[in-house]
Specification:
The chain has about 130 residues and is an alpha+beta fold. It has one domain. The chain has three helices and ten strands; from the N terminus they run βββαβββββββαα. The longest helix has 15 residues. The radius of gyration is 16 Å and the shape is globular. The chain starts with a strand and ends in a 16-residue tail after the last helix.
Length: about 130
């Protein structure tokens, strides 16, 4: 479970991703999936979790063109996000999650933007971190 926890020393705030999940919520074409992400997910999970290509990423120096694909979204969140337990947000492919998900650090500007968009309060402001007003 430790892999899900993040810490932003600059703010002195601890961010527990499993009680937030804000970065997993968005609109269609939200989390891009590159060829190496699909390879890591494997054919079965790619078919289940990745939407059909919506175009092509052109080739560039040292890289072939590849389909432009995104994670599927269900009820406004990534299909790989499990919301079965109230107040818990667990990535079902955490160890194999796409590179863009890996790059989003707890407490980073992108994390804080997602938390603000989803109205997630800091853990110090609320017991469960959600704004219920």
């Amino acid at each position: 479970m430790q892999a899900y926890l993040g810490y932003c020393a600059a703010l002195g705030e601890k961010y527990d991703c499993t009680t937030c999940g804000a970065c997993c919520f968005g609109k269609r074409d939200y989390v891009q999936v590159f060829a190496h992400d699909a390879a890591v997910l494997g054919p079965a999970r790619t078919a289940e979790l990745v939407a059909p290509a919506v175009g092509e990423i052109p080739a560039s120096v040292g890289r072939e063109s590849e389909p432009k694909r995104f994670m599927k979204m269900t009820h406004g969140h990534c299909t790989a996000l499990s919301t079965a337990t109230p107040g818990r947000f667990l990535c079902t492919v955490y160890e194999d999650r796409p590179e863009l998900c890996r790059a989003l650090e707890p407490g980073s500007a992108a994390c804080l933007e997602a938390r603000a968009r989803m109205k997630v309060l800091s853990s110090a402001a609320s017991h469960d971190g959600l704004d219920r007003s």
